[in-house]
Automatic annotation (TrEMBL):
The keyword Signal applies. The lineage of its organism: Eukaryota, Metazoa, Ecdysozoa, Nematoda, Chromadorea. This is Bm11666. One of its GO terms (molecular function) is axon guidance receptor activity. GO terms for biological process: homophilic cell adhesion via plasma membrane adhesion molecules; synapse organization. It comes from Brugia malayi (Filarial nematode worm). Signal peptide: none annotated. GO terms for cellular component: axon; neuronal cell body; plasma membrane. Residues 2-80, 85-158 form the Ig-like domain. It comes from the Eukaryota.
Length: 158
């Protein structure tokens, strides 16, 4: 029966990078290679499966199957695509009157899940008597705004 030589089974690449899965099989007679993704056949019979510019939707489980007259064998590859953080539903100006409560939101997508740090004057903001941060940091509540003159401009950086 055919045999698949061991190799990297968990593959992590950045979005837009080239994804290469390699499946080296031996056997007599020489086995043919079949690639599947989530059980669906892919259109290649090469020992290398290549995606020139990976996207988030390319993440998942890929299977390499080697077969010949003596039998078949398969191995799985788990593909994870790293996605750089990007903002969603971003409000760049939030108006708050002196003494009012303010709710600032920072919605960010990415893989792995991005860490969010609120900054003011170049220094990280932490939970304080007047400021509450949500556990993941996506929301900051200012319970009673001080030192704001009618509006507060928020700068968002990645």
């Amino acid at each position: 029966p055919p045999m698949i030589l061991e190799g990297e089974r968990v593959v992590q690449v950045k979005e837009d990078a080239t994804l290469i899965l390699e499946c080296i099989a031996t056997g007599n007679p020489k086995p043919i290679i079949v690639w599947k993704r989530d059980g669906q056949l892919l259109n290649t019979r090469d020992s290398r499966f290549v995606i020139a510019s990976s996207k988030a939707s390319d993440a998942g489980r890929y299977t390499c199957e080697a077969r010949n007259e003596a039998g078949k064998v398969s191995t799985d590859f788990v593909v994870d695509i790293f996605i750089k953080p990007h903002f969603r539903d971003l409000k760049t100006e939030i108006r708050v009157h002196n003494g009012e409560q303010a709710r600032l939101e920072c919605k960010v997508d990415g893989n792995p899940e991005p860490n969010i740090t609120w900054m003011r004057g170049g220094r990280p903001i932490e939970d304080m008597r007047n400021i509450i941060l949500s556990p993941r940091g996506e929301t900051m509540m200012i319970l009673k705004s001080r030192r704001f003159k009618f509006f507060h401009n928020a700068n968002f950086e990645l």
